[in-house]
């Protein structure tokens, strides 16, 4: 048990019994949830963690081969649930973690009661079949090249685009520092796995109720993606947020809390 708890830097807070498992997105760590968790501490057991290679996880446990697809990250989630013997899990995932949680719930639907997806996308690339993901392959390759050539420059470039809240420079700066603190090699591998993944074929296999929280004016995930997910996830609810950007749990915590609470 200790191995998984240390490996993924697992923290448990809250006074309730039913677990909420908060899963951070690419380039981030569990610290990203700090504006949200206080609202749920009274009634839920809150589990926070870092994926291997992120935050204060055990970087020695990172293996490129294991984490070359989302399956490795999905295994992190299932390991935590099994180690802590969690039941009726409410999974809240940001960005790519939404798909990681989806894959975990497909493998073990008995572990999960509900999935909440914040800024989810099953595929970030536009497709010839008319699917709008928001990026061309050349855009993604440019980002990956930039990460390799000038990691700090990449962080400074992407943070303001992803946060998209110019009236709150402090939030953008904080995100930039989080990006910069990542291991450049691991971060680039995680970026490649994230941006080149395609999990559209998995959507029909989902069976647990799902809340899709789609931000308005999200430069990473356009509104068409939220609508696509809602069409293809049979037990889903789509809520369009007034929050702009890709990090509403940081920039608009109260709206994020309200929508989660309504769904629960």
Automatic annotation (TrEMBL):
Keywords: Hydrolase
InterPro entries per the UniProt record, alphabetical: AB_hydrolase_1, AB_hydrolase_fold
Domain AB hydrolase-1: 19-253
Matches recorded under SUPFAM superfamilies: alpha/beta-Hydrolases
Keyword Protein biosynthesis tagged: no
Keyword Hydrolase: yes
Pfam family, one: Abhydrolase_1
UniProt-recorded name of the protein: Sigma factor SigB regulation protein RsbQ
């Amino acid at each position: 048990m200790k191995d998984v708890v240390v490996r993924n830097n697992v923290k448990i807070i809250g006074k309730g019994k039913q677990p909420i498992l908060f899963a951070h997105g690419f380039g981030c760590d569990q610290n990203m949830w700090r504006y949200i968790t206080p609202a749920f501490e009274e009634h839920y057991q809150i589990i926070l963690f870092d994926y291997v290679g992120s935050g204060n996880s055990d970087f020695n446990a990172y293996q490129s081969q294991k984490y070359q697809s989302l399956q490795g990250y999905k295994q992190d989630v299932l390991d935590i649930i099994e180690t802590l013997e969690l039941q009726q899990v409410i999974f809240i995932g940001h960005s790519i973690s939404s798909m990681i949680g989806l894959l975990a719930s497909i493998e073990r639907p008995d572990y999960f009661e509900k999935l909440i997806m914040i800024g989810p996308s099953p595929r970030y690339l536009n497709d010839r079949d008319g699917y709008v993901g928001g990026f061309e392959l050349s855009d993604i390759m440019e980002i990956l090249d930039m990460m390799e050539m000038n990691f700090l420059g990449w962080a400074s470039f992407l943070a303001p685009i992803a946060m998209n809240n110019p009236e709150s420079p402090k939030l953008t700066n904080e995100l930039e520092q989080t990006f910069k603190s990542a291991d450049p090699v691991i971060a680039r591998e995680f970026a490649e796995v994230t941006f080149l993944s395609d999990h559209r074929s998995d959507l029909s296999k989902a069976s647990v109720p799902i809340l899709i929280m789609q931000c308005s004016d999200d430069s990473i995930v356009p509104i068409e993606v939220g609508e696509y997910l809602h069409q293809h996830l049979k037990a889903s609810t789509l809520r369009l947020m007034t929050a702009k950007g890709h990090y509403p749990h940081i920039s608009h915590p109260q709206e994020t809390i309200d929508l989660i609470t309504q769904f629960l």
